[in-house]
């Protein structure tokens, strides 16, 4: 009995070890939850014989902390937004061997170009998905309170008079400092990427002025609250807004959600696939990236995760309901008004999070 | 014989040194470091590659900047004070709920007590996280509590408990209640029933006997229970994070934000050290109290 | 008066109201009291009167109901039927904290978190005594038990004897009409116990209180009591002065419970003058001086109660007399206890008799030795008859 227990314990330990140490013919992927069609992994395993271990996280912070600590055991990670730049400068990513990924040719040059702010020459990142930050709202409840011709700008939240009228049906914002403060900066007519201390502090006060109209600051609760009709307006990302609308449609609960990119403009954000500098399965990682960039596979994945894909060739095969949705794929004109975030220095970054802490706790 | 005894005494110290002192020194070192965008995200890192000179240079790079930062920014003091406030109120609530429970258990018939004790400990057999998630299911707007109250027509609008400080208190009181009940029960059960009879015999009513005999005699249990709840509650992170709202400012959450959101390991380590220093005061008081109590019994 | 002077204590014992002359109504009266716990009957239809200023002992083996009697009196238990009167007042329904009866608990039950003074003053505090008066009474009580200077000690800083005295002072502080003492000396060693017995008697005498003591220790009961009630299985077997309990037991059980005794089954054969005659084992003829209340029916089977110290052990046959009984046997065992020696003598009929002689001579000069043939003799007035 005892020896049996020991054996199974050893086996268990070996299994855990194996996952982390990933020998040849294996690949360890660390991705956002629900951010890759599992069928693609199965197909990749069947085609190549490579054994894929798939692990997920739910915040950029979690990913960065784990990776920066070193020896994470992962091969491929999917950092988002300014986090990509941070990881590149921290030296934890390795340059991609483009000769091993012929399918890079299918990438959307415009999106790839946007990423160059963080990764000049796209040396470390393979663009994955992109999205915007905007406002999702319950059309019925907003019409009731503001009339049908209400503004479609950030004023919906930042004008105390307007959001005051919405306070009774719950206004929510996601718990994301850079996005929300940038939105406030845009609404005030400032550069959303400013590092000016006074402007950032003023943006904090700008949000503080309508703090009492905000029922909840939460990322996790956003999709559910919007689709259940618990919240009538939410500041969130286009992908989450899409999921909320989808949920409401499925529940058939009379909630009709719309996502707008406010007319003053907003942030355009993206994430990329990257290979860690201490990856043990470099060849397998390249093979996977190449596999994923096949237009048909990219389209399959886009249809599953419902985000804007960076694969241009794949667009033809993506569900038209997605491609025709201006919330997911904004028009050319809208695209002109979008700004990508920049990586701030540590001091400014801290100023952002500190300003946010004060907003959050209502101090 | 003497050597083996010495080894035996050495063992706990070795354990303490290896698993407390060494990690603590590492945390102190990080607290004195600067945070950088690198892996690991702080500098300097000690390395023997550059020999003694390199080591000396690394040492010279350590400073108290992070602690100065803690002192300069009011939000940390607020977070510490709020944590102490939340922990103190939660401890009081736990005592108010735990005392009658422990009292009833101590007064229960002998053959019931083991079962009751088991019931108190039983929740520990499930994961702490799962129990907190269960509370989310109970407290949220469309949760079990609100649905029941609305079905019974006691309320019309759901009570907003989730994501408020009330939910944090519910979570802490629920999670730490056994730590309050167990020492209380131990001291109440030890109380000699004849002391109460003696008090009654000398003209004491039931309530007066409780106030003059039972309560003072259970004070060691009260103190032990309060410390066992208060000390971990100050640093509590999971409960305020999951049940509390965005307005719940606690030091555990602040530490988490420094570590994860700001990736500032230096400040996070400094917050942790200050937290530990704050906790040392009640811990030492607790130790002294326990010792005094032991002596009185002996 | 010296606190620990046996002589003065003895005088205390001589004074109590004589139970034979109940001129006044009793202080305490148990009237057909029955107490059951579930199916177990602890006290069964019991009647008992206790007079003022008595030092009354409830004596019996554990489980005999003596502790239940005390708890009924104190108010910790309610009677199942019957009633208890104090000064003519029915106590039923009066809770323990309203009865003018205090109790000294077995192993004292001192409040461990209070000083000696606080312990003693506890009962007075409940009655909201003025601070000054309370202080005076506490001092008085401390003086009574000779613990001046110990007022600020905590119980765990006291010796066993000191704790016992604090407990006594605490239970006396309210000057109760009745003090109940539950095995008050059980936790003390033998020498201290004897000293404390006299102390208790002295206190009782000085305060003029009624003491009721529960004990399983017959020596203790004999020493301190004015009267003893011997209990068995929820009933009173005999209530009497220590001397009468010892020398005129009402039953062989009482005789056997108190001290050492030889119990001999006899058959009455008739009277000869003022002596009763009986036959032992159908042979040996015995003369017994009967008690006034004894009913002597010839042919009745009785038990002869013969205390060992009443028997003489001699090597030579004693002189014949009509009021002296004698039997012959062989010494089987001699146990030496210092002041006396106990002889176990096997009679020719097979019976073993215990006899005790004071050691008037040094042991080396003792006449009787192991296996000696000896004569045992006792006077007709030195033994009593009880129902078999």
TrEMBL record, chain A:
Residues 1-22 form the signal peptide. Its main location: periplasm. Coiled coil: none annotated. PANTHER family: NORSPERMIDINE SENSOR, SPERMIDINE/PUTRESCINE-BINDING PERIPLASMIC PROTEIN. Belongs to the bacterial solute-binding protein PotD/PotF family. Required for the activity of the bacterial periplasmic transport system of putrescine. This is Putrescine-binding periplasmic protein. It comes from Leisingera daeponensis. The lineage of its organism: Bacteria, Pseudomonadati, Pseudomonadota, Alphaproteobacteria, Rhodobacterales.
UniProtKB/TrEMBL annotation, chain B:
It is found in: Cell membrane. The keyword Transmembrane applies. Keywords: Cell membrane, Membrane, Transmembrane, Transmembrane helix, Transport. The chain crosses the membrane at residues 7-32, 86-104, 116-136, 166-186, 217-239, 265-286. The keyword Membrane applies. CDD domains: TM_PBP2. Residues 80-286 form the ABC transmembrane type-1 domain. It is a multi-pass membrane protein. Its main location: membrane. InterPro entries: MetI-like (IPR000515), MetI-like_sf (IPR035906). Gene3D superfamilies: MetI-like. Belongs to the binding-protein-dependent transport system permease family. CysTW subfamily. PANTHER family: INNER MEMBRANE ABC TRANSPORTER PERMEASE PROTEIN YDCU-RELATED-RELATED, PUTRESCINE TRANSPORT SYSTEM PERMEASE PROTEIN POTH. This is ABC transporter permease subunit. It comes from Leisingera daeponensis. The lineage of its organism: Bacteria, Pseudomonadati, Pseudomonadota, Alphaproteobacteria, Rhodobacterales.
């Amino acid at each position: 009995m005892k020896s049996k227990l020991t054996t199974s314990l050893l086996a268990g330990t070996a299994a855990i070890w194996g996952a982390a140490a990933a020998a040849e013919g294996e690949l360890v992927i660390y991705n956002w939850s629900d951010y890759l069609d599992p069928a693609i992994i199965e197909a990749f395993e069947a085609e190549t014989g490579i054994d894929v271990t798939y692990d997920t996280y739910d915040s950029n912070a979690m990913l960065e902390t784990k990776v920066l600590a070193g020896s994470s055991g992962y091969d491929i990670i999917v950092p988002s937004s300014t986090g990509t730049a941070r990881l590149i400068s921290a030296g934890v990513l390795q340059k991609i061997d483009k000769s091993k990924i012929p399918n890079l040719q299918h990438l959307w040059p415009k999106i790839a170009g946007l990423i160059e702010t963080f990764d000049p020459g796209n040396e470390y990142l393979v663009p994955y998905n992109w999205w915007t930050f905007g406002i999702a709202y319950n059309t019925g409840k907003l019409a009731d309170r503001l009339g049908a011709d209400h503004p479609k700008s950030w004023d919906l939240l930042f004008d105390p008079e307007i959001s005051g009228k919405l306070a009774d049906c719950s206004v929510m914002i996601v718990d994301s400092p850079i996005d929300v403060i940038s939105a406030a900066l845009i609404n005030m007519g400032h550069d959303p990427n400013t590092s000016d201390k006074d402007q950032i502090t003023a943006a904090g006060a700008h949000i503080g002025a309508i703090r009492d109209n905000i029922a909840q600051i939460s990322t996790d609760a956003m999709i559910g609250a919007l689709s259940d009709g618990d919240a009538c307006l939410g500041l969130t990302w286009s992908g989450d807004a899409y999921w909320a609308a989808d949920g409401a449609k499925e529940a058939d609960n009379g909630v009709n959600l719309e996502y707008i990119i406010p007319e003053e403009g907003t942030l355009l954000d993206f994430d990329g696939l990257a290979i860690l500098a201490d990856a043990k399965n470099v060849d397998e990682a390249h093979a996977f990236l190449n596999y994923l960039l096949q237009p048909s596979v990219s389209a399959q994945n886009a249809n599953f995760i419902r985000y804007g894909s960076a694969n241009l060739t794949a667009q033809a095969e993506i569900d038209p309901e997605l491609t025709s949705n201006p919330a997911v794929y904004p028009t050319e004109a809208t695209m002109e008004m979008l700004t990508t975030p920049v990586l701030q220095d540590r001091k400014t970054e801290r100023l952002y999070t500190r300003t946010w802490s004060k907003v959050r706790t209502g101090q | 014989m003497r050597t083996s005894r010495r080894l035996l005494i050495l063992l706990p110290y070795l354990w303490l040194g290896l698993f407390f002192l060494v990690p603590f020194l590492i945390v102190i070192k990080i607290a004195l470091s600067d945070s950088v965008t690198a892996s690991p995200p702080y500098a300097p890192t000690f390395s023997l590659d550059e020999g003694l000179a390199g080591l000396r240079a690394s040492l010279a790079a350590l400073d108290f900047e992070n602690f100065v930062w803690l002192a300069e920014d009011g939000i940390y003091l607020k977070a510490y004070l709020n944590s102490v406030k939340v922990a103190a109120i939660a401890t009081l609530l736990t005592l108010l709920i735990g005392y009658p429970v422990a009292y009833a258990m101590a007064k229960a018939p002998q053959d019931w007590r083991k079962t009751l004790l088991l019931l108190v400990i039983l929740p520990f057999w499930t994961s702490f996280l799962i129990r907190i998630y269960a509370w989310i299911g109970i407290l949220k707007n469309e949760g079990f509590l609100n649905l029941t109250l609305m079905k019974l027509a006691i309320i019309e609008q759901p009570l907003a408990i989730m994501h408020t400080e009330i939910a944090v208190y519910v979570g802490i009181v629920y999670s730490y209640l056994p730590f309050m009940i167990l020492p209380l029960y131990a001291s109440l059960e030890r109380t000699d029933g004849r002391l109460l009879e003696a008090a009654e015999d000398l003209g004491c009513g039931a309530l007066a006997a409780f106030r003059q005999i039972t309560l003072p005699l259970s004070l060691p249990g009260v103190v032990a229970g309060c410390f066992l709840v208060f000390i971990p509650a100050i640093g509590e992170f999971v409960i305020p994070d999951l049940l509390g709202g965005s307005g719940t400012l606690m030091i555990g959450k602040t530490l988490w934000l420094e570590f994860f959101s700001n990736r500032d390991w230096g400040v996070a380590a400094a917050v942790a050290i200050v937290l530990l220093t704050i906790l040392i005061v009640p811990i030492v008081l607790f130790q002294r109290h326990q010792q005094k109590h032991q002596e009185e019994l002996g | 008066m010296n606190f620990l002077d046996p002589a003065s204590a003895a005088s205390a014992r001589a004074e109590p109201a004589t139970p034979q002359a109940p001129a006044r109504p009793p202080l305490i009266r148990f009237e057909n009291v029955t107490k059951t716990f579930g199916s177990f009957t602890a006290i069964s239809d019991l009647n008992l009167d206790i007079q003022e200023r008595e030092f009354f002992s409830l004596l019996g083996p554990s489980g005999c109901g003596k502790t239940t009697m005390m708890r009924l009196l104190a108010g910790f238990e309610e009677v199942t039927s019957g009633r208890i009167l104090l000064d003519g007042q029915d106590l039923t329904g009066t809770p323990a904290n309203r009865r003018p009866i205090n109790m000294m608990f077995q192993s004292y039950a001192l409040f461990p978190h209070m000083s000696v003074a606080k312990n003693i003053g506890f009962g007075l505090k409940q009655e909201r005594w003025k601070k000054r008066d309370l202080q005076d009474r506490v001092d008085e009580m401390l003086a009574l038990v000779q613990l001046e200077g110990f007022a600020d000690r905590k119980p765990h800083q006291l010796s066993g004897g000191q704790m016992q005295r604090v407990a006594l002072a605490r239970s006396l502080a309210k000057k109760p009409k009745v003090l109940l003492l539950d095995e008050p000396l059980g936790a003390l060693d033998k020498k201290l116990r004897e000293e404390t017995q006299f102390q208790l008697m002295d206190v009782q005498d000085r305060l003029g209180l009624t003491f009721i003591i529960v004990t399983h220790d017959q020596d203790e009961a004999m020493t301190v009591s004015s009267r003893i009630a011997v209990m068995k299985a929820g009933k009173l077997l005999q209530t009497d002065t220590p001397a009468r309990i010892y020398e005129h037991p009402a039953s062989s059980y009482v005789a056997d419970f108190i001290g050492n005794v030889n119990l001999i089954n006899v058959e009455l054969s008739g009277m000869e003058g003022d002596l009763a005659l009986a036959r032992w084992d159908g042979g040996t003829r015995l003369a017994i001086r009967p008690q006034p209340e004894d009913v002597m029916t010839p042919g009745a089977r009785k038990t002869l109660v013969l205390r060992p110290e009443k028997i003489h052990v001699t090597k030579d046959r004693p002189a014949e007399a009509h009021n002296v009984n004698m039997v012959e046997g062989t010494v089987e065992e001699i146990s030496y206890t210092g002041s006396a020696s106990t002889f176990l003598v096997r009679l020719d009929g097979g019976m073993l008799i215990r006899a005790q002689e004071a050691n008037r001579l040094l042991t080396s000069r003792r006449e009787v030795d192991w296996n000696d043939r000896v004569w045992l003799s006792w006077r007709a007035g030195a033994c009593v008859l009880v129902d078999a």
